[in-house]
Amino acid sequence: MNFICATCGTQFAQTETPPGQCAICLDARQYVPPAGQQWTTLEELRSSHRNSWHLYELGLFGIGTEPDFAIGQRALLLQTPEGNFLWDCVAFLDDATIALIRSLGGLRGIAISHPHYYTTMVEWSRAFGNAPIYLHAADREWVMRPAPAIQFWEGEERELAPGVTLQRCGGHFPGGAILHWRDGAKGRGALLSGDILAVTPDRMVTFMFSYPNAIPLSEQVVAAIGQKVERLEFDRIYGAFWERVVPRDGRAILRRSIARYCQAVR
């Protein structure tokens, strides 16, 4: 069985019994709950969960699981003239989700911001003809289910298609990446940021080493992230959760967010 950690949603390589521990949850950026590590499978989840969809804008759908599972993030399906890309991943995948994505043209590739959202990426890849999975090489140690479809990219930038580019920012994880969508927000540009630039309830962004354990990043690291992102053209920021979206003025809000964060940690 390919067991799934119920706390973070990571699927592990095939074993007869559940793994003794989840390396991702043992890391300071996650946690093991007081009741201990719990495990499930896709087969079990299919009896109690489903995926819901939301159209954010032309060419961009949100996909999330109900009821919430593990971390509770939602994925994004980005449509481009070169094919569709899944940004980040949710652990739950069923026939209905596969059918809907196929009806929209399938998947050309999968790109993921950081290890907390690797989840069942291999299942998603196999459901769509072994679609390539793009992960930054700096985070390769956190892959719990290796597969030939995984392509580790290096450096600071990787183009997936014209106008669709991965940008390494670091911070939350060394390989932490965002996706720059040039044509998003009606041509003004959009960032798909995962938890690398985490959208807050007041529609600003923040930066953390560990979100559940409230461990901040240094002022120097956050300033460096800001310098990398500032050179991109964008007006909108899509975070990792349903309502966590900065709808406009993203560049100005990024600057204000960095100033607010640095003042607080200073």
The assembly state of the depicted protein chains is: single chain
Write down the CATH topology. Metallo-beta-lactamase, Chain A
What's the CATH class, please?
Alpha Beta
Radius of gyration: 17 Å
| Secondary-structure content class | alpha+beta
Structure description:
There is one protein chain. The chain is an alpha+beta fold and 266 residues long. The chain has one domain (4-34, 49-265): Metallo-beta-lactamase, Chain A. Helices cover 21% and strands 29% of the residues. It has 7 helices and 19 strands. The strands form 5 sheets. The protein has a 7-stranded mixed β-sheet with strand order 3-4-5-6-7-8-9, with helices on one face. Helix 6 (219-230) packs antiparallel against helix 7. It is globular, with a radius of gyration of 17 Å. The mean pLDDT is 98.
